[in-house]
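Quick sanity check, Leucine rich repeat protein:
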Amino acid sequence: MKLNLIRPYFQKTGIFLLIFVCFLTEFRAEESYYIEEGIYTDLNEALKNPTDVRVLNLSYRYLTTFPKGIEKFQNLKHLDLSENFFKTLPQEIGRLQNLQELNLSFNNNPIDLPQEIGRLQNLERLNLSGNRLTTLPQEIWRLQNLQELNLSSNYLIDLPQEIGRLQNLEQLNLSGNRLTTLPQEIGQLKKLEWLHVNHNRLTVLPKEIGQLQNLKELLLYDNSLTTLPEEIGQLQKFKQLVLHENQLTTLPQGLCKLQNLERIYLHQNRLTSLPQEIGQLQNLQELHLSSNQLKTLPKEIEKLHNLQILNLNNNELTALPKEIGQLQNLYGLNLKLNKLTILPKEIGQLQNMRDLDLSDNQLTTLPSEIGQLKKLHSLNLSGNSLTSFPKEIGKLQNLKFLRLRGIPDLIPQKEKIRKLVPNAIMDFGEGPKLKRRTTQSRQRKSQNRRENHGN
């Protein structure tokens, strides 16, 4: 009897032990695999077989001095010393002739690189981000095979002209520094595909930026740019242009020559108008222009046949051109916080429209054609001055969300409106209107962010 009672216990215990043994076996197999592949995270273990070491990761070890014996790893290709507390590197670093990647990021000290680092002629990737660097060691410019250089999150105030020597450079990250300009020699980096200069203090770009014919990605947001060079139109491989949080007042015509451009981020600038040539961007899918000072849109916007998202939130638009109805692929339109008093009837031609935000304008009526937006999923009319509601809204069978906050004249019509769109979730709350963010407050916020970064 007692044996029957304890048998299930031993059965469960046996199963648990079997699972644990399998797990331990698999773990040891994985551990052996990594060692066999030459990947080490323990220096003492690595020193037992120095010629087998291909990857050595000593990050997050709170090291203040360079590990002794590291020069013995003649076949080492990847060395990660990030998140430590180094101030200097020994001359022996130059003996690692096969090293391809060196990560010294976030040691929280200006690292003194020895001349011998210039001997690492096979080095392809160097990460010096987050080290409080104010200047760059000359030895870097001898690394002729360098393909990726990360200098982000330092205190650099200028970039030496010697940057032009790194002819094989493909990726350059300068974000989060104190740069006010770039040297004209930047144009010599013919293989550069990826340039990040966001979160700096740039006021101007050199015209030589147009010589970077292989550039595919350029991040320039959160700077102090007031203008762009016409030569930016020569970057024909561009698919994405990120320029938000600057002080741009106009756009160069050259920008509209970027035929492969798919996304433009220009929000939080000081644009008052768009060039007519914007219609040349035939492949444009997203156009983000919120928090500018736009008063009108050019009729040439009708040529953007592939446009899917148009964000004009927080501008000074009083009307929309009738040509907006030609944007047949548009499914997201944000016109919140403008000064619209009327909508063109052509808005009903936007057959793929799913999300339409018209909140916080000065609309008193809606065109009956709004009922033609058969795919409309969300409609926000909050904060307007509507006195009536078109019955054609009842044709919007796919409408799921209808927001009518802060429109007192529609409160008595609640039930009537509910019957028009019984399947939609409605919001009649009488919350306060959103405050319009001024250009000055936006620029002040960006400036404070940059100053805080520098401290």
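Posting the structure with no commentary besides this: The longest helix spans residues 2-36.
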